[in-house]
Amino acid sequence: MGIGSFFGRLLGIAQTVAPIAGLFFPAFMPLISVSLRAIIAAEGKFPAAKSGADKAAWAADVVSVNAPDMIAAIEAATGKQLVDEALLQDSLKNINDGLVKAMNAFRVLPKRDA
Questions:
Q1: In a domain, 44, yes or no
Q2: Does any domain span residue 114?
Q3: How many domains in the chain?
Q4: How far apart are CA 94 and CA 114, in angstroms?
Q5: CA distance to 17, 29, 54, 82, per residue, from 39 (Å)
Q6: How confident is the model at residue 114 (pLDDT cuts 50, 70, 90)?
Q7: Residues 48/110, Cβ–Cβ less than 8 Å
Q8: Does the N terminus or the C terminus of the chain have fewer Cβ atoms within 10 A?
Q9: pLDDT digits 0-9 by tens, 11-45
Q10: Among 44, 45, 69, 59, which Cα is nearest to 94's?
Q11: Which residue has the higher pLDDT, 18 or 98?
Q12: What is the 3-state secondary structure (H, E, C) of the chain?
């Protein structure tokens, strides 16, 4: 499979998963969408041999940069204010880790060379 077809397939999965997740948690759709896009971008930015920790750190930075907009969107959708920033940061890491694990369960992310 060529690199273009791989990322096309990965993007297709992300475009399918994000709206489905949004059906259950519409107010949190910004978190899921940005996280998925950051993970996909990290896979495209780094070679398959790059460590998962490096990719995760880069994806977390992308999510952090977008955090103010995500927080504003969630606050507007829920009518609630963010009260625990540390808990949000921890949950963002867990969301990214969970999405990567789910994608790995279907082997849609490239396998790192041993």
A1: yes
A2: no
A3: 1
A4: 25
A5: 13, 15, 11, 24
A6: very low
A7: yes
A8: C
A9: 565 555 555 656 667 888 888 888 988 998 888 88
A10: 59
A11: 98
A12: CCHHHHHHHHHHHHHHHHHHHHHHCHHHHHHHHHHHHHHHHHHHHCCCCCCHHHHHHHHHHHHHHHHHHHHHHHHHHHCCCCCCHHHHHHHHHHHHHHHHHHHHHCCCCCCCCC
Q: Output the six-digit token pair for 5.
A: 């077809």
Residues contacting 44, CB < 8 A, separation 6+: 7
Range of the domain at 99: 3-105
Residue 46: pLDDT band (50, 70, 90) is confident
Does the pTM exceed 0.85?
no
76 in a structural domain: yes
Distance between CA atoms of residues 45 and 9, nearest Å = 16
Residue 93, token pair as written in the block: 């890491």
Q: Cα–Cα distance between 35 and 96 in angstroms, integer?
A: 6
- C-alpha gyration radius of the chain: 15
